[in-house]
Amino acid sequence: MMNRPTKTGIAGTLESNDCQVTVEPTNDDSLVIQIESVVKARFGKQIEMAVMDTCKQLELVGATVFVDDKGALDFTIKARVETAVKRSL
Amino acid sequence: MSIRSALFVPGNSAAMVLSSPILDADAIILDCEDAIAMASKDSASLLIKHTLMQLPRRQKEFWVRINPLGSDFFVDDLNNILPSLPDALLIPKADGDNWDEIIASIEKVENKFDLIPVDLIALIESAKGVMTCEKLARHPRTKGFLLGGEDFASDMGIARREDNRELLFSRYQVVTWAKAFKLLCLDTPYTDIDNLEGFKLDCEFSASIGFDGKACIHPLQAEVANVVYSVSDDQIRWAKEVLDETKKQSVGVFSFKGKMIDRPVIMRAEQTIEKAKKWGLLR
Question: Are residues B46 and B179 in the same domain?
Answer without folding.
Answer: yes
